[in-house]
């Protein structure tokens, strides 16, 4: 079997990264980045400032790896000095001076100085604290934090031990405590790293219960009797070890016992000391930040089962939640985020799960547990507490609310409460200082006995549309300038989840808030254009207009239906909105007219201030105040009517196509469905609180772009999943949640394996099969059981139960060929020791006499690793394939589908991808395999982009089946005629079926019986074949009459053709019986199609429809799965209903590359804090689930591949890229095939930022466009060159430069000018890459972005950047070390003037080194001048020839017509190396500059 990898230091490194601004700590008179006056962003320090900084100078002297300079010996005093002067914060809100930490981290302070000189015994407090700050900074930047520690694992354990004991005998200030706590948060978030996991998990083991109060400890053991035995075993072990040491066992001295308890008690002390009214606000704010961080810490621990199991009793014993509820901070304005975090902690403390078994508790289980708890309390009260007699006799429904319980308990004195709670119920310890407070005691008991709202009830009561309160709540939906320094009231997508409900709930909340952020951005973009003001009547009016928002003429609620049984919210609320499109131009009117059913709109209430806000007021006010925005409510379109009341955009069939008329008038009336949960909340506020009637104030209707407006359907899908049970296949359940054996779902551990697999056309020849199984002695056997000396495909293989796992991978990067060369003697010796692999060679039956009967054959020679992936993919279970760039992921996926179809023809497969482009690429390759087109279906909006002759949409397939039906029936009629039967047998599919049974099959059986008796007559078949007339027009004669066996094979082929024909007719019968197009399309999707393809977005949008139609599938193949959000990967697994309580899904094949870019998450906080950009594929890799990594690339030159193959285990090269001439030839005009080009300041400037995060670099833009023009002038086709950059601002700047410099002279734009992120999954021959930044590395520090950038080029890669910045970046060193082995000035070969050269790679020729962008511009101008002169000379020569011929024509009038016919071409076709207008290289002519803009795609 192929190599299967798990997690480890080499496989997965934490490397999500983001770009954040930092505040300047000191001023140095340098040019600041250019910004708009209103840009709300602080300047980043410049590179010059960093170079001048004293920390940089210290780094250069002591640890920076620059040149050959020697460094001073390690000095602990220097570490102490840096910590005390640069890193220690004494009076500030922020726990670290971020800029100083960034400079030290970038200089590799940790990797080159702190860690190499760390000693577990002697290192100082400042040394350890400095390491903690550096690690925290790496986590903030989301780069690999633990990787440098793997070289000294024992020392790292010592470091963690020192960290855990750091507080012993030393007092830390509040900033140090916060940093320490943040380190612990980061450590517990890294449980996939074994060196971290081993130490930190000991802190949450059963030993922790030594710190419980005695009463709580007794209660926990009574509730969990299975732990008593384990507890006794631990106690004996601890006592035995203590006796060995000669001391009595004292639990409080054990680090694992007291660590977390001490942290909690320390937090409670700080919480109590937080005086928010003090004048020292900075110190109070620092305390608040610590409290928020501690809540985050506890939430993280309680939201993962391994850390939750034994910690939850401690949290309950100390009553953390109750004490937080009663703290001053909880109700203070500064404590809003803290209060939200406390509520989240309370939610996870009471989560519906059995902590020790790990099973989810159903609503019934939770309710029964609540009832039994209250009943036991009532019984206790009845027996022991006379004052609570009323509570004891009350029904449970009357006392399970918080207010009712509080009222009943208020009759008890404080002594009676203490006795009840501390002694009888044992909820808290009587020694707790808070036990003397009545409010605390009541809070504890009420929290324990009150009925909590279930998760299902909570999510069903939640509005799906965001409102104005959520939109501008910074703790829930942070703005773009989130720096990662604070925490948020958001769930995190960790490695593990408590239950499926927990998984769905976290994803629901995050997806909802991410959508809210995008909606908020759209509102902030659309509303200012309306120019709202208060008119003379005191009403809101609008001077401007907005493309996406229109004033409402009239709004009215038309119907509110009664609530369903058991609910309080209405079952539906509909309203009618009237608006005018008179102010819009035609193309914008058409956009509003395109509104259709299920589109989401937003109702806005705008009420601006009477007087415009001053600049000072605007700066202090919130965004809604500046916009005058009062309320936001979402709604869904039911129908749209024009001014005459005619229905528009109807897809329900109420209006027939021939009756459709264009909309009339300028008024539009939209019927919308409001969110019933939100409506109920609003109406309740009006009734109970006297709030304003929101629904009478709406005056703006806003729409969004259709592609960005599908959030509601996805949220509904998640909510529906939460209301279902047992939704994931059993074999995937535990792995999905992150528990159990990571290999449990691997095919070798699954039941119902395919023992014998027909690989069809997978193997090109017998040697290909032998190479694919190098650890086996392959024995080819014929169908008769004898050895086959000359085997030819196809082959059937009987797979062993356990394939060897150390084969099928390249031995290393140096290996460029799949073939393993060994001498013959060694091969014979090894073969004798190898296990045998039995391969059956069989002759496939004759497919038929016509060319279309012949199966399509695979031409890809799969590598051994790809074969391993194919074997794993066709077997049941979970298959994960990591496909590095250019390794043939798509080909592998297609062959899995092909083999799966032929081995399991009754099973249905669902294909999911992230993008339409990837889906179309996959689909086009499937069509080239031996899978009938009638079994293929492509759903979604991208099917029209398929570059095929056939239409694979639902409608296209239905039409194809109907056309095919007619073709087949005509063939049936022809067959009937050939048998001298009436032609009416071909009237319908049904009559054709009878004809097959009664006549065709009868003739065939009779023919076979006769042949059995006449096998000795070679000509018998030729003379007696009953369908000879029907097959009379075959390309070749059917029968030779020389061999009975050969003729019999041909006859069976003819019969197979007939059988296939009638089988197709049987499949067409449903389309004959079903009359409506919708029914036919649904039948096609649910019954006919064997392979159904769609994007993950389409799957999420249409899940409800799939369930209603009874859509079924057995296998799921997901391409680009590392680019798909967790929840968008999960939903496609659940597009079908269960069968008898079991999921039907048998195989899940995930193909992707977690070393390339993750899913796109627009809000940095969700990406950085909540890890929302973590794909399911990446999480599975982190969990250690086995995966197969393809190991031979066929895209790039081997030298270029070295720039990124270090990131993969054994990525080598296919023979193709080592043997083809194109990969050996140098790039004409350029000395090197790849090069880093150092770009200095251009006109005194490096990077600029005209607006936040909109980075540009004019020097790189001009340089890169000059190089592009130079290549075009040499004759390189524009279609072969792409320009990439790492920022959108630079992309737009480069496009502007191209428009200015390339469109006027006919050079035209390159194939694409886009960002690296957008170009993922694509490639081109030549890539010009601009890295933009000159101050900080920015988000290219994410190694995944670097891998994508380096792996797009096939033949040439030229990187334009600031060398001094990027060569220092630790994470990027493997790539930049290679780049910097070559000169950093662009090397040109000016002797070459055509796109062709005889130079080979490595021969640089006579190089000219370009010093700057200005010199490159001069070279280009000179070349253009040369070409211009050549054109002028050619034009002059042509004119001279034309004039000479004109003189000859005048002298010889008799041959005038002939001479005219032979006149030369017009003079504008100049004889140059490269035409500057439309020519053979596909160049764009001058006149087409309008289309040039569209060619430079996003």
Task: List the strand order in the largest sheet.
Answer: 1-21-15-20-19-16-18-17
**Oligomer classification:** single chain
How would you classify the helix and strand content by structural class?
A: alpha/beta
Number of helical stretches of at least 4 residues: 57
Beta-strand fraction estimate:
5-15%
**In angstroms, what separates the terminal alpha carbons?**
42 Å
What is the overall silhouette?
A: globular
Give the overall average pLDDT.
Answer: 85
| Uncertain stretches | 6-44, 804-831, 1458-1498
Query: What portion of residues is helical?
Result: 40-55%
Number of strands: 32
Largest sheet: 8 strands, mixed
Compute the gyration radius: what is it? 37 Å
Give a written overview of the molecule.
The protein has 1498 residues and is of the alpha/beta class. The chain has 57 helices and 32 strands. The strands form eight sheets. The chain has an eight-stranded mixed beta sheet with strand order 1-21-15-20-19-16-18-17. A six-stranded antiparallel barrel has the order 4-5-9-7-6-10. Strands 24-30-29-27-28 form a five-stranded parallel beta sheet. It starts with a strand and ends with a helix. The relative contact order is 0.07. Residues 6-44, 804-831 and 1458-1498 have low confidence and may be disordered.
